[in-house]
What we know:
By secondary structure, the protein is α+β, with helices and mostly antiparallel strands. Helices cover 28% and strands 30% of the residues. Strands 1, 2, 3, 4, 5, 6, 7 and 8 form an eight-stranded antiparallel sheet that branches. It starts with 19 loop residues before the first helix and ends with a strand.
Amino acid sequence: MAIDSPTTVDWDHPADPPTGQLSTHVRAYVDTSGADGHLWHGVPTLLLTTLDRFSGRPVRTPLIYAKDDGRHIVLATAADGTPGVPSWYRNLTAHPEVRLQVGALTAQARARTATPAERETYWEAVTALWPAYEDHQAAAAPREIPLVIIER
Length: 152
């Protein structure tokens, strides 16, 4: 199935996680424009909306992020450290146009996998925010968990 162009996508009505902590987090974030939810367990989070690579429908996911020179950097790992890349990452590799919400700011953006040099540059910043990412990488070895750069 072909994905609609970003101009015909209903970005304002994405699918959210159906239940559990992720669902609660997203709902609080959206309902308060990030006042409740931007900081989660003391770390900054954003809401990333990607287009499902099969249906073309928008799907929203909360992610921990680092920031550098206007870029938002996230790690493509499941919240629970489950092996493999999460569906949101497979979605953005198929369709890099995304929507980003950071606090009250919502904007269209473009996401891409970091180059090896960028990954090396940003890895420490991301793992300093959430040290468990080091454990996720150790469990994923020899596969390298992708680092994603989101630019507006």
